[in-house]
Amino acid sequence: MWKRREEETPSRPPVPPSPEPVREPAPPPTPRPSEAEVPRGVAAIGKSVKIKGQIFSREDLYLDGEIEGTVEVPENRVTIGPHGRLQASVKAREVVVLGTVNGNVEASEKIDIRKEARLVGDIKTGRIMIEDGAYFKGSIDIVREAPKPQGAPATRPAPPPAQPGTPGPQAPSPAPPADPKR
């Protein structure tokens, strides 16, 4: 009476033991639209950090806090995050603006001003991209590197300036006035 009958319990086919399941790492959570992703291998200043002074870096830099002073990253990229507020001059190889910058920006390669960004100051760069919706007030100076001459012929030196009292090259004399009788 208390025993179950084998007919009443559903029978399952025997499952062979399988090796330990391989677990794939979970994909990283996607950032919300208001957040920006900080790539790995980048020095980061968080949004609750406030710095007054000079920042010099030899690696990529992500700024999401308040900075007042100068930022120099001559061989790498500076990214001003969406919460970043800079009262600073910025010099870098590449600059990406997602937040607010009040100051001059100089990039040897490229400046990228994104949709919600605000930049007030003068820009000096090789290339620039300003997305629709971005705010920019200032001047833009596009700088091109001078092409390096490869086996260019030597140019002739300019003749030395004439010394006072020495006759120099003569300018052609004006034509005589036309004879009114003819």
Description:
This protein is an all-beta fold. Helices cover 0% and strands 38% of the residues. The chain contains no helices and eleven strands. It has strands at 43-45, 50-56, 61-63, 66-80, 85-97, 100-102, 105-113, 118-120, 123-130, 135-137, 140-142. The chain starts with 42 loop residues before the first strand and ends in a 40-residue tail after the last strand. 21% of the residues are buried.
Helical stretch count? 0
Sheet-strand content, in percent, reads 35-45%
* Helix-and-strand structural type: mainly beta
The Rg value, from CA coordinates, equals 35 Å
Major sheet summary line: 11 strands, parallel
For the secondary structure, the number of strands is: 11
Average pLDDT works out at: 79
- Report helical residue fraction: under 10%
Which residue ranges are poorly predicted, with pLDDT under 50 across at least 5 consecutive positions?
Answer: 30-35
The first-to-last residue Cα distance is: 148 Å
Succession of helices and strands = EEEEEEEEEEE
Shape: elongated
